[in-house]
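Journal club side-thread
Mid-discussion, someone asked how the predicted structure for our own chain would compare to the paper's figures. Pasting it here so we can look after the session.
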Amino acid sequence: MRPIIRFTAIISFSFLAALFSACGSAAGDPAAVQDLDRPLVLPEITASKPKIVAFGDSLTAGFGLAEPESYPYLLQEKLRSEGFDYEVINAGVSGDTSLGGLERADWVLEQERVEILILELGANDLLRGMPVDRMKKNLATIIEKAQAKNVKVLLCGMVAPPAMGSDYERDFRNAFPDLADKYKVAFLPFLLEGIALKKDLNQADGIHPNAEGTRLMTENIYRELRPLLKKNT
């Protein structure tokens, strides 16, 4: 069994307030709404290269950042510097929930030579107070679709603030390691470890990492991704 996630203590009521404040700001800001509704556009890809699909919401899409500051771009640079010849596809959509991810999973997984899926979804389910069992089922189905195509999965976990209620907080926190155990996939317990609630590492909304925070988030991801990688000869 995996150890109990140790990051719950750092998430407090202030984080929840920031979440709903940011959500409210987006609702009243046409520019923000436009960004949330922006359709997924995949970059031009090279069919011959093995692919890593960064599949998620605004944390993956790079909300509020220039493209070279987004984690998929930074991950691509990291892989090159380490001698790995993968192509990283940014399949992040701002505002996406686990259901939204499930609805586009088949299309994303149809890309040629996808070898790894970095699955980062659930934060918007939390924002909207969606039932944890529904989120868990959606994520499970995405993992099953990936594994049916022999695609390795790195599951990125999130945690809920205690203000959501102890039962919800516990169920949400446990959903990710439960899935990782059930499907035997690579697992990052908390995507925003070392970043959440740190003002100097986040944008003004308090929940989306700034450029420096995203660099740290990329390192968090790479630490768990590294064992899945292979040098291409």
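Post-session note: Residues 1-43 have pLDDT under 50 and may be disordered.
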